[in-house]
From TrEMBL:
Cellular localisation: Cell membrane
Coiled-coil region(s): 445-472
Name of the protein: Type IV secretion system DNA-binding domain-containing protein
Chain positions covered by the region annotation Disordered: 714-733, 820-841, 930-954
Transmembrane regions: 21-43, 63-82, 103-125
Length: 954
């Protein structure tokens, strides 16, 4: 668009170009001169009044006389032809005043009047010489720019904000523009435009090409809420708690701008992560259905397989909700979805009868559906592996200590835990091995009949094979009773621990399993006299040790994973003022499919929760009580989330929830959604920000979205006749004018950098289309460099780090169980004394936890490297040594015993280090002794004093 004006000197001059503004020079000059004379005359009339503080020269004439005399004098000075009597009379008066020293009083008045006349001419001339548009907009949107646009938008928004309240600042007319971290740019309310609360409820849609400034605009909103409303570094607009839910980009553009303590990150590939507590959110089968709908896509062309997979997944969730409400996790969902079809069918039939029609189709279709389910939810195994230690719990079928407090899971675990059972198949194996052993013995006898020396090696191999097969055969025979004993012991401890210690963990079970065999048998058989005592024969100890070894070695790791603090979306949504007000879903750029399904699942869950009629509206006595903003940057990367966006845009406004949708180009959305859906989004967002894009289909679509204007133009025509030339002018209305053209969208909008006061300064220009407003505004925001407050670090699993089991060996377990000179750990229902295994402290409840399931001793106790080595040696000795539990009154012996142990471990040269370790080891060694003599003497003394039973110590 060429805005250069055309200068017209005469009204008869014909100008055919009516698209450019005109400046009518003659009329502008004449009107400016007239304004000068008018202002001068008025000013001189006022000044020629005789004021006490500013007297006139000696005379008896009125003020108008001096004004008229000035003009006579001026004209006479120009030409002698105008030197009439009035000129000569006033000239003599000036000479007389000069002789009296009063002439300066009139000269000063002339000068002041000339200044006033010049000022009036300048002010009027600015308007007179302003180019005049030859067209006038009569209908359609008007594009406002610059200060005029700022003033027009402020006038409208201030009227709304004054009655309904303001949410945040969107623009400033101060200095270089609105800067979130510069209080001067928004200190005066007259310089800023506030987003009215009703306007922000209508949601926001941002679109702009790469590097066009889309992030500048969205971050301006997000950072304002962070620094003004959450951190309160500046005075907030209101006292309403603000909350932010952000679906970040893989680059982590938003996460880096928040301090750790202010934001909670749901991610998988960083040390700073918080797992999602899925069971705390999915309490009902209907919740599961919403979550699953986000994770499993449904094809428009063939929706059966997707919907069927959703039904099966919902059935699995229904089973977990029914039997493990609030206790299950992603690892359990991953475990059960990978079960064989026949086992899945049994669960669905009982817990989700809605899937009966699918089950009736037969095993083959169900297998295909399970394949679709596995393909859609493959990421869940990865998430379970990172968040819940899936790989470490395969041998216990993903069981948790919390679930084992329920009878259903106790029975389920006891049925699944041990894989060797004396079934018909086992019996067949025994028969085959008997035949094999017999055949080997026959071959051995035949071989020995030979006399050749080269037969010796073959004979040795046959004898070894016979021994191996005999051992395997005996193992199968022994496994039946060994398993029965193990399961009986586990069953007893599950029930007893749940009764005596409702908060028990795996390490508590570990301690119980290491009780001496004789005492173990005594406790179990006393609790259940109907048990066959033969299963507790000492010959089954070996099988028992093999069975419990996995629990003993991995208990600490399992507890560490199970006690990790987790995040509940439901609790966060219902808490209007949570401790952590920012939640970030952060997908991985390298592992891009790892979290996408969970993000979509949570979005669908949030949709159903927020739209619930029991999720209260945000108006209470006419006051706003909720200001929740959901920012979905590059939301097209999530795939089709139509089932979330449509109800969110339709119904979230009444709940005080604002959705901010950001994308780069309309073509991205058209590739995922139908064009009708795109029209729906544009029609249901009250705040549309257009950041600019290259010329093309998207720019044309934006141009059409802004609309056309109806213009009234003056058309000129000229007719030449014999009598001369005549001109005529007629106004005509045009209705095909674009408010902004596609090439203007490309050239006018976006981010540009210049230098201001020698420093680089960036500005983003964008179109703002506010709902309920008939016009469109071109606004400018400065580019800000916000401080980086968080630096992402890769999670340990990315570097291949794995967690190791406890250093306890099979021989250590054997020593504890067989009771080489030891007595058992005291428990409810068991004997006193015995081996004491250390129990780790549960991780403190908090909002996040770095990826360290196992606490680092150096961090926990602040030990030096030398002290840490000593601690490790002492721990090894503790786990492998025989300890005896002392009675209560002998607790004062523990310090002496500990010093003895430490001195033995670290040597005399490290006594100071050992003493420093005393507190760290105190919890483990409390009331224990390594002296068998001290143990017997202490208990005999207590038995004699209190009359205790010699066997049970009770």
């Amino acid at each position: 668009m060429n805005d250069k004006p055309i200068y017209v000197w005469f009204s008869s001059q014909l100008v055919n170009d009516r698209t450019r503004p005109h400046v009518y020079m003659v009329s502008a000059l004449l009107s400016t001169i007239f304004m000068f004379l008018l202002a001068f005359t008025i000013a001189l009339t006022v000044l020629c009044i005789n004021y006490p503080f500013f007297p006139m020269p000696t005379n008896n004439q009125p003020a108008w006389f001096h004004v008229l005399a000035f003009f006579k004098l001026a004209f006479g000075m120009v030409s002698p032809a105008f030197q009439f009597e009035g000129f000569r009379t006033y000239a003599r008066a000036l000479i007389w005043w000069e002789s009296r020293g009063e002439v300066y009083l009139i000269v000063i008045r002339w000068i002041l009047a000339l200044i006033a006349g010049g000022a009036g001419a300048w002010l009027f001339g600015r308007k007179a010489f302003k180019p005049v548009e030859q067209s006038r907009q009569v209908r359609g949107r008007k594009l406002w720019k610059g200060k005029e646009g700022f003033a027009e938008l402020k006038r409208s928004f201030d009227a709304q904000a004054s009655s309904a309240g303001a949410s945040y600042i969107i623009a400033s007319n101060k200095g270089l523009g609105f800067n979130v971290l510069d209080a001067k740019s928004f200190a005066d309310p007259k310089d800023v435009i506030y987003m009215p609360d009703p306007q922000r409820r209508g949601h926001c849609f941002y679109i702009g090409g790469s590097r066009r400034g889309k992030g500048v605009t969205t971050k301006k909103v997000v950072m304002q809420m962070y620094y003004h409303n959450i951190r309160r570094k500046f005075k907030p607009l209101n006292d309403t708690p603000y909350k932010l839910f952000i679906v970040d980009t893989p680059k982590g553009e938003y996460a880096s701008l928040f301090k750790k303590r202010h934001a909670l990150q749901i991610t998988t590939d960083e040390k700073y992560m918080t797992p999602h507590a899925i069971s705390l959110d999915l309490e009902l089968t209907q919740d599961v259905a919403q979550f699953v709908a986000g994770m499993i896509p449904v094809s428009d062309k063939d929706s059966f397989w997707g919907n069927a997979a959703r039904s099966v997944a919902t059935g699995i969730g229904a089973f977990l909700c029914a039997e493990a409400k609030g206790l299950w996790g992603y690892s359990h969902f991953a475990y059960f979805k990978d079960l064989p079809p026949e086992e899945i069918a049994a669960l669905l039939k009982k817990y989700y009868p809605e899937s009966n029609q699918i089950l009736a189709m037969g095993e083959q279709p169900l297998s295909s559906i399970m394949g679709t389910l596995a393909a859609s939810l493959g990421f869940m195994n990865d998430v379970a592996r990172i968040w819940e230690g899936y790989d470490y719990k395969k041998e216990i079928h993903q069981m948790t200590a919390a679930m084992l407090k329920l009878q259903f899971w106790q029975e389920w675990f006891l049925d699944k835990f041990l894989s060797i059972e004396l079934t018909e198949e086992n019996k067949e194996d025994i028969f085959k091995k008997s035949e094999l052993i017999s055949s080997l013995k026959t071959s051995l006898a035949d071989t020995k009949k030979g006399t050749s020396e080269d037969k010796d090696k073959e004979i040795a191999e046959l004898e070894e094979n016979i021994r191996i097969e005999e051992r395997l055969k005996q193992r199968i025979f022994d496994s039946k009773n060994g398993e029965k004993a193990t399961l009986a012991i586990l069953d007893y401890h599950f029930k007893d621990l749940t009764k005596s210690n409702p908060d028990w963990q795996w390490v508590d079970l570990k301690e119980r399993l290491l009780i001496k065999w004789a005492d173990q048998v005594s406790m179990v058989t006393r609790d259940n006299p109907k048990l066959d005592i033969r299963i507790f024969d000492r010959s089954n100890i070996k099988s028992y040790i093999a069975n419990i070894e996995v629990i003993v070695k991995w208990a600490k790791i399992w507890d560490a994973y199970e006690t990790r603090p987790k995040f509940s979306m439901r609790e966060w949504l219902y808490d209007e003022n949570p401790q952590t007000k920012i939640v970030i879903m952060k997908p991985s750029g390298r592992f891009n499919n790892q979290l996408d399904g969970i993000i979509k699942g949570l979005l669908y869950y949030m949709k159903s929760t927020i739209n619930d009629k029991y999720f209260k509206d945000d108006k209470k006595n006419g006051q706003t009580v909720r200001n929740l903003h959901m920012v979905l940057d590059e939301f097209q990367n999530l795939g089709n989330v139509k089932e979330f966006i449509e109800p969110a845009l339709e119904m979230f406004a009444s709940k005080g929830v604002t959705v901010h949708l950001c994308c780069q180009d309309f073509s991205q959305l058209k590739a995922i959604y139908q064009e009708e859906f795109l029209k729906f989004v544009l029609a249901n967002t009250m705040n549309i920000y257009i950041m600019g894009m290259n010329s093309g289909d998207s720019a044309e679509m934006v141009s059409n979205l802004v609309g056309k204007k109806h213009i009234s133009k003056v058309h000129a025509s000229q007719t030449k006749q014999e009598s001369g030339t005549s001109s005529s002018f007629s106004p005509q209305v045009h209705d095909n004018e674009l408010v902004i053209t596609p090439d203007e969208i490309n050239s006018f909008l976006g981010t540009r950098f210049t230098k201001v006061n020698g420093k680089p300064h960036g500005e983003t220009t964008f179109l703002y289309l506010p709902g309920n407003e008939k016009d469109v505004f071109m606004l400018t925001l400065p580019v800000e460099n916000y401080p980086v407050l968080y630096q992402a670090e890769p999670a340990d699993w990315i570097s291949g780090k794995t967690y190791k089991p406890s250093r306890i060996t099979t021989q250590d377990i054997k020593k504890a169980v067989e009771g080489y000179g030891t007595s058992s750990v005291s428990s409810s229902g068991g004997s006193g004394g015995g081996v004491s295994m250390d129990k780790p402290k549960a991780n403190p409840k908090g909002l996040y936890m770095e990826d360290k399931p196992v606490a680092d001793a150096a961090d926990e106790f602040e030990l030096s490297p030398e002290e840490l080595d000593a601690l490790e040696m002492a721990t090894q000795k503790e786990e492998r040594s025989t300890y005896y539990q002392l009675p209560t009154e002998d607790e004062n012996m523990q310090d002496t015993i500990l010093k003895d142990v430490i001195g033995e471990v670290v040597g005399g040269g490290a006594v100071q280090t050992g003493l420093h370790l005393l507190d760290a080891l105190g919890a483990k060694a409390k009331n224990l002794t390594t002296s068998r003599t001290k143990y017997h003497e202490s208990w005999k003394k207590k038995e004699k004093k209190e009359g205790l039973d010699p066997l049970t110590k009770n």
